[in-house]
Amino acid sequence: MSYFFDSKNTKQMPKGRVEGIAKVTGKAKYSAEYDIPDVAYGVMVGSTIASGRILKMQVEEAMKAPGVIDILSHENKPYVSGFSGMKEMPDNRFGLPVFYTDKVYYNDQPIAMVVAETIEDAMFAASLVKAEYEEAIPETDFAKKVKEVSLKETENDRGSVGAWENAPYKVDQEYTIAKEIHNPMEMHATIVQWKPNDKLVLYDKNQGVNRVQSVISSLFDIPTDNIHVISEFVGGGFGSGLRVWPHTIAAVMASQQVKRPVKVMLTRPQMFTMVGYRPESWQRVKLGADKDGQFMGIIHQARNNSSKIQGFSDGITRVTRKIYGFKNVKTEEAIVELNLPMPTWNRGPGDTTGCFGVESAIDELCHELKLDPVEVRLKNIAPYEMETGLPWSTNYLNECLEKGAELIGWKNRNPVPGSLKEGDYKVGYGVAVGMWGSGRSYTGASIDMQKDGVITVRTAMTDIGTGTGTGMQNVAHTVTGIPKSMIKIELGNSDFPKAPSQGGSRGMASVSSAVYAASLALKRKVAGYAWPDKDANSLNIDDISLSDKGVTYKDNFVPYADIFSKNNLNDIKVEEFAGPGEERKKYGFCSSAAHFYKVKVHEKTGKIKVDRMVIVVDAGRIINPKAAANQVIGAGAGGIGMGLMEEQLVDFKTGRLIGNDLAGYHFAVNADVPLIEVSFIGKPDPNINPSGAKGLGEVGIIGAAPAIANAVFNATGKRVRDLPITVERFFNA
Amino acid sequence: MKHSHSNAMSMSRRFFLRSSSALAALSFIPNSVKAFYQDVKEKFFVKKQMIPIQLEINKKQYSLTVDSRATLLDVLREELNLTGSKKGCDHGQCGACTVHINGERALSCLTLAAMAQGKAITTIEGLADGDNLHPMQEAFIEHDGFQCGYCTSGQIMSAVACVDEGHTGSVEEIKEYMSGNLCRCGAYNGITEAIQQVAK
Amino acid sequence: MKPFEYTKPKTVREALSSVTKHSHYIAGGTNLVDLMKKQIDEPDKLLDITNTLPDQIEVKDNGVVIGAMVRNTAIAVNKAILESWPLLSKAILKGASPQIRNMASAGGNLLQRTRCPYFYDLTLPCNKRKNGSGCGALKGNNRMGAIIGYSDACVAVHPSDMCVALAALDAKVNIRKADGSEETMNFLDFHRLPGNNPEKDNNLPENALITSIFVPKNNFSKHFEYLKLRDRESYAFALVSVAAALDMDGNQISEARLASGGVAHKPWRWTKAEAFLKGKQATAENFAEAARIAAEDTAPLSTNAFKVPLLKGAIETALHTCLTNKA
Asked: CA dist A495 to A30, A210, A211, A441, A444, Å?
């Protein structure tokens, strides 16, 4: 395993992530990069209609292409117990019954997989696979269908609408956001290797190895213990790796069928159609306030698109019930099912979308009230967790706002839109906030100490770039006292203690607790061996510390060598699990962020440049300062994409995505993003977990896009209510 | 592209689907068929050509036989197990596959392996001097110029070239000249700062 | 990719004599390899001409000759080009990425195919890819499409930035035909409008080779601008681009050049606007009028109406920048 690079023979190493050297030298192995003998190449083939039925696969031509081994489809596949007997799309939890249906729900739906000797052979043959269809007219236009679908109560309302119908100041507006594709840089990939006795190894790109294990286990009716999932390095996810998608299932089927290891890597266009995206959305926000800017009530309605395969609700109105102390809240949602690919959770799911509506509407209201948007927000922050009535464990959103205003120089903002200029550009400032419920999940970690005192900390949790491994090392070092150079990290492997998928900003909050528990257990166990006469459990844990050489208890010291030899040990192992407890009944938990942006707008060309971004985050204790800042910087870059350019277009007639590659779908390049200024409140949350970390993967992007839109309004007086703010939307506003 | 299979396959299989029969087949396809809008009569197969080539990669000579269709990127990754160069799009739209060809940054996904002969190729694996990291590699670690690490090889190869080319006069210049390397994690602060440090 | 035979001719003559019905020349490969991977182009034979064509930039009395094999970066950083034809350098540097510019050849830049998404998706109709299949973009999503010079058969635009500068600078294209004879074409005649046969991007005779590009001397090196507007700051194709160049006599415009990318099937010259500017004072009003004149000939498609005000804003802005953008 290369995760922890053995740096014994090298000179002074720069300080950074535990896996830093593996990543900068190209030694890190991502899923498709394991050298598996005799591997065959799989390439997915998608449908060319958006709705209908496959009458017949036409694979003859493809079968004759050089190097083709087999072509799987609904006409030619192995037995999969979880799918067998399915004809219509069932309400199953796997989504598409891969190769077990002849129905087509969207264009580029996986209908076949070519398996060939080489990557060149497989790619070419895949282009020759065709199908004869019975075609139906697809429904693909969200804007056209959105209002036809009735909204449903979310059943989380508070107060009444009548209570604020006479509010002196009101805003009632509609907002939309285009489909956004995750597009992690690593395209989803899997290598599947069947071994004797129904054992299975998957090198798979995902955000949770145990999830993959359980899905494959139930689909193929194999015990989970037989399935070994390795995801040591994951080239980004942002939510696309939270589900098990058809290509992984297809690769398992293919490997079984051709009796060889099979490697599949999606093409970039398939990354747009086969692994989810943030759905297109429509929102209406009606907001009322008194003359002092005290919010009186809100109605938030939202609809998002889903596929005809499965319903998917993004949870857009959740954030409305959370951030502010609205006494009167009415929220309604609906799903618009279309012949489009399956959407899924995308960074800050729901809340990122909802915040655009709410945070824009607040800005509109402040403009009408002629009140400062920072002041109005400060006045209205939820005093406790509104949905449960529980007190916040910690919520420093107010400090985020105050600090951010100071850092950006909010006083330089002129509340009158269009009044500031720099050269040919109009200049504006915008603010918006974000919040994300923090939590943690039941997570395991183990520590294995060798005779030389070197420990290896392990968990099944993946590190999708968030710094999980580095955080684990930091926690183990802080708790045990063992120097970092003697702490190895191994993760992303289903052989290690079980862990939840890395998502919802729960990774660090969860795994840090498990490592904390394992570190304590290690201290106690080592002490127990060192002083067998003492009852290890009765020793004050704070008096025990480990070092590079041995264990200390008060004034007593025993070297590791003695412990291992006297007790005749080869290693010392501990494994601990940690999860949420009683604290969830006592407190509300959240991370929050305030975004303060300065934009420059060239009115003649509609060019919008984000000139400065100040993001202040309350995420409890920051375990990895550099990686944490990097997370927020990345979220800010994602916010620029969402605010200004990310938009997946659809050809409505055919349901094909238009420009579904990295030249057609734009996200921010280096030149789009200023050097982002991040700062943290940094106060530990005393109740969430032992480390006090609240999680920050999502919150950095929640509020980013509305801060841009609000700044554009301040610069130009143009209110853009539809994202992204491309030039046409700017001109039309 | 594994030798053991591909050679055998290309020798044993020859396929020429005559253009006339392909056209004849078309006439039976009912209207509901979504045929690809390609010129079907050109769809006869040329036998795949396996070419013996010599490549100089990271100052090492490699002799191998490759499919004429093979890109340098696929040869590196699938044939030589040099997986440091990444496939992020396979179409010249992301920069993850950036290598140096004769000292200049180039995209290995748009370079046919056969056309890379006689040129000095450097990949991320060839950047460090043994255990001594290249200053740019150290700077990327120090400034946390990555998160997931997938675009990192390409970023670093591009960054080294960016410094060599002298495009480091300002933050804006660095950012413009690094915009051919997408980073979806958005670690652009660290990337830019790492380059600033090395350029000093 | 469809299997093909790879060969590497040593001379132009050998290259010309090696062509077959389904062969293709390859130089930088930045577009062709992409098209082959997508199976939009399916040659059965590739002729690697990287060793056969000139790769030098030669300054002559009347202009500069850029060998067809000169890489885009080499043109952009060339001292003579920067001094006398800085518009060309600026346009090149707005295109693609440093990596691609290092690979792409001068000749290949002229032969780039459109980036229309309908052209790139084999399941969608596209007359440029297969004439007779229809134009999916015409009534589909044509946000990136043309606003002038298109036909019902094709609304695609030419993607090059370099070519917009070459169009503005009245370049010429030197070619060697399959029979070995040489010919010089005016750059403005090189690319063509789609009409009823959009599968043809240009008027280069079949199997002919571009050997070099000639750019005449001019007085535009002091007042020029290449303004490219796109969905992001860099590494994206143009929504609209403007190459503007002025030959100034005091505040009076002696000659003007205006060309655009992202608006038509070929790099587009705004000749009426140029004629208007000739002899006028360099004022905001005259620049706005030139932009209006250019825009009045345009007719946007169903989803790209924004390109018209964008073009106007771009022309005005580029002309203003000409006054301050001194080489």
From this structure: 18, 9, 13, 19, 12
C-beta of residue C2 within 8 angstroms of C-beta of residue B45: yes
Kindly state whether residues B20 and B71 are assigned to the same domain: no
Per residue in A77-124, pLDDT (tens digit) is 999 998 987 655 455 667 899 999 999 999 999 999 999 999 999 999
**Dihedral of CA A473/A479/A485/A487: which sign?**
negative
Residues near A206 by Cβ (< 8 Å), separated by ≥ 6? A212, A229, A231, A234, A237, A241, A242, A244, A248, A462, A501
Domain-located, residue C144: no
Cβ separation B48–C34 shorter than 8 A: no
DSSP state of B77: I
State the chains in contact with C (3 or more Cβ–Cβ pairs under 8 Å): A, B
Q: Answer whether A605 sits within 8 Å of C136, measured CB to CB.
A: no
Q: Which of A118, A727, A731, A732 to mutate to test the interface with C (most CBs of C within 10 A)?
A: A727
* A366 and A413 part of one domain: yes
As a whole number of angstroms, the distance between CA C305 and CA A350 comes to 32
Residues A82, A215 within the same domain: yes
Two tokens, residue C116: 């229309």
CATH of the domain at B114: 3.10.20.30
Here the CATH number for the domain that contains residue C240 is 3.30.390.50
User: In this structure, are B8 and B73 located in the same domain?
Assistant: no
Segments forming the whole domain that contains residue A502: 20-31+440-579
> Under an 8 A CB cutoff, do A634 and B186 touch?
yes
Q: Domains in chain B: how many in total?
A: 3
> Which portions of chain A are predicted below pLDDT 70?
1-13, 86-93
Q: CB pairs below 8 Å between A and B: how many? A: 256
Q: What is the mean pLDDT of chain C?
A: 97
pLDDT value for C326: 52
Would you say A615 and A681 are in contact if contact means Cβ atoms under 8 Å apart? no
Question: Same domain for A446 and A512?
Answer: yes
CATH code of the domain in which B178 resides: 1.10.150.120
- The answer to whether residues B54 and B120 belong to one domain is yes
By CA distance, what is B99's nearest residue in A? A26
φ and ψ at B192, to 5 degrees? -65, -45
Of B95, B126, B157, which marks where a domain is finished? Answer: B126
C129 touching B, CB under 8 A? yes
| Chain C residues whose beta carbon lies within 8 Å of the beta carbon of residue A267 | none
Tell me how far apart the alpha carbons of residues A151 and A313 are, in angstroms, rounded to a whole number.
12
- The total of structural domains in chain C comes to 2
Cβ pair B150:A30 closer than 8 A: yes
Q: Which of B107, B100, B162, B149 is nearest to B127 (CA)?
A: B100
Rounded-to-5 percentages of helix, strand, coil across chain B: 40, 15, 45
Parent domain of B24: 3-42
Average pLDDT over residues C18-44: 96
Residues B58 and B92 in one domain: yes
Tens of pLDDT along A261-274?
999 999 999 999 99
With contacts defined as CB-CB under 8 Å, which chain C residues touch B49?
3-6
Which residues are paired to C183 by β-bridges?
C175
CB A95 within 8 A of CB A110: no
Are A64 and B77 in contact (CB < 8 Å)?
A: no
Whether residue A385 lies in the annotated active site:
no
Residue span of the structural domain in which C248 resides:
223-324
Structural domain includes residue C277 = yes
Please report, as a single letter, which amino acid is at residue C212. Answer: S
Q: Taking each helix axis as running N to C, give the angle between helix A625-640 and helix B188-199, from 0 to 180 degrees, rounded to the nearest 10.
A: 110
Residues A335 and A459 in one domain: no
Q: Which of C34, C189, A250, A69 is nearest to B110 (CA)?
A: C34
The length of chain C in residues reads 327
The CATH number given to whatever domain includes residue C17 is: 3.30.43.10
